[in-house]
Amino acid sequence: MSFDDDAYGALTDHDDDSRWAYGTGFADPMAGVPTAVPDDVDRADLAAYCLMLGDDVLVMSHRLQQWVTRAPELEDELALANIGLDLLGQARLLLTRAGEAEGAGRDEDALAYLRDPAGFRNVRLAERADADFAYLLARLLVFSCWRLPLLDRLVASRDPVLAAIGAKGVKEVTYHREYAAQWVVRLGDGTDLSHRRMQAAIDAVLPTAGELFRPHEVESRLAAAGVAVDPAALRPEFDEAITQVLDAATLSAPAGGEVSGGEMAGRAGRGRDGIHGPELTEILAEMQELARALPGGVW
Amino acid sequence: MTEEIRHEWPLFEVFVRAKRGLNHVHVGSLRAADPEMALHHARDLYTRRNEGVSIWVVRSDDVVSSGPEDKDAFFAPSGDKVYRHPTFYSIPDSVPHI
């Protein structure tokens, strides 16, 4: 559009006549991204890795949507639903990629709805039930502070699909982290009661964060191949972000060392190896019930 | 539960600008404990469908408005001043918002 014959149009980027109330300019983050798996990348490893990352966000998303109708305020309910939907969108792309890499004809639905708990590779942090709103916020903060640098590094992955998923996810999780951080600060630096409950949540959640940084052998192999992110490398950024939030919130890291220390998750068995608590079984019973009762059902 | 916790959050008015070059438009209101939370809530409530590129929030208490009793003195006098309208110019079709 030339500036000479329509100065106003040039000013407003007005390329259609739709009304603002339903925004336009939606873009498919995967448009133009080649889906072929690079020749030298091990397909089984890539499938396993996409399953790990996909299960993290699928399960976390389900936990978030369980807050809908239970959040303390309507506005926060919608915020949590938005965050859950962001993560569900990431899960769809990751599970789809896992199915493509696997090459056995399983699509995102087959992977989400027709696997048993032992087939899930999510970190245990994602499946934990939230005792209260503070616990959810602690979990969301820890999850986002770990996930953001992970996605940021994934942008450089040699798998073009993972790189695109990383680029899309960075913008989303940046907001999730900001949302969680603001609430943790608000409650931590709030009343005596809110401070006490926020501290209790941090004390419960932070010691379980150790699992996030211990590489699975698939992650190690793919990281060496320039495809995956080595989770151990995320620790300094995680510690820095968490420390900054806790300081602002007048909260303290649980006694006994660094903020992302904690080997509790190690003793309990690792989600990356398919070892989960009864919490995941409950989630899947709810999530998969309909799909299993009506195989192939569409509505 | 104490009275302190029971009280309601203050009301904020939300303005969203759809595109570069257009005005911020009032889209609604929401409750929030502080301005930062209001901005977050506005983002989550009013820009989910790609509506905006910029948000303003302002405490409803801080909005000064005209009252119904001002209607005649404020607005009626402009009703018969036709010469204030730029009706003697032709507007190009390509200028949609004026």
How does this structure look, described?
The complex is a heterodimer of chains A (299) and B (98). By secondary structure, chain A is mainly α. Chain A has one domain: Ferritin (Up-down Bundle). The longest helix of chain A is centred in the first third of the chain and has 29 residues. Chain A is globular. Chain A starts with 6 loop residues before the first helix and ends in a 6-residue tail after the last helix. About 4% of the residues of chain A have low confidence. With 98 residues, chain B is an alpha+beta fold. Chain B has a domain of 61 residues: Phenylacetic acid degradation B (Ubiquitin-like (UB roll)). In chain B, strands 2-1-3 form a three-stranded antiparallel β-sheet, covered by helices on one side. The longest helix of chain B is centred in the middle third of the chain and has 12 residues. Chains A and B meet through helix 1, helix 3 and helix 7 of A and strand 2 and helix 2 of B. Chain B: This is 1,2-phenylacetyl-CoA epoxidase subunit PaaB. Chain B: It comes from Paractinoplanes globisporus. Chain B: InterPro entries: PaaB (IPR009359), PaaB_sf (IPR038693). Chain A: This is 1,2-phenylacetyl-CoA epoxidase subunit PaaC. Chain A: It is an enzyme of class 1 (oxidoreductase).
Please outline what is shown here.
The complex is a heterodimer of chains A (299) and B (98). By secondary structure, chain A is mainly α.
Descriptive terms for the model:
heterodimer, A: 299 residues, mainly alpha, Ferritin, 12 helices, B: 98 residues, alpha+beta, Ubiquitin-like (UB roll), PaaB_sf (chain B), PaaB (chain B), 1,2-phenylacetyl-CoA epoxidase subunit PaaB (chain B), PaaC (chain A)
